[in-house]
What does this fold into?
Amino acid sequence: MASSGKFDGVDFSQINVELLTPELRQLGQGFRCVRGEFVTYWKQGRIQREAEAHLCQCWIARIEDALAGYITLLADKLEVEDTLLIQEGVKYRTFPAVKIGLLAVDRRTKRLGVRLMEWAIDYVITEVVPIIGVRFITVDALYDFDVDPAYDASGFYEKLGFEFADPIESLPPVNPYRTMYLDLKPLMEALAIEESDEDHEHCYN
It folds into this structure.
């Protein structure tokens, strides 16, 4: 069983994120998450089965044989009421997206959730966008009003730049979650400018 000492002093902002493989599926015996269902999903093999069925892909962060956290990605579509990209001449209300399916971290880690999200955003921009049409990353931010105080994950995603698909959705929502999205285009444009600046710097060196 993983001890808390395995996570002491670890800089999770730089930790390696690796694809879940059959050899890594035995991890997680000491995994502790604020939301117990995310532990159950792992231990009961739900995530592994869905990955094998090509319903999602899963990546993990670990310290030796101790699972520190995991994230799953899958195909999605973003549906909005407004013509979100009307200024770009696009009148659709449904857009291709990659979805954050599950995001879970051991409660003894620090800033691992941010690391996994930043990794996922970078992965989609650098690996997915160049080969298929993807404009947004979506997530169903959990809102649990059956606990006191209510559990609302949306604040975490707002800090990362996510917006509500329905900004006037009432609380509590009809479903136990609120759909949020992140527009990748501004990030891609900023990355392109950064790479261009680096190229110019190399030319003058």
About this structure: The mean pLDDT is 90. The chain is about 30% helix and 25% strand.
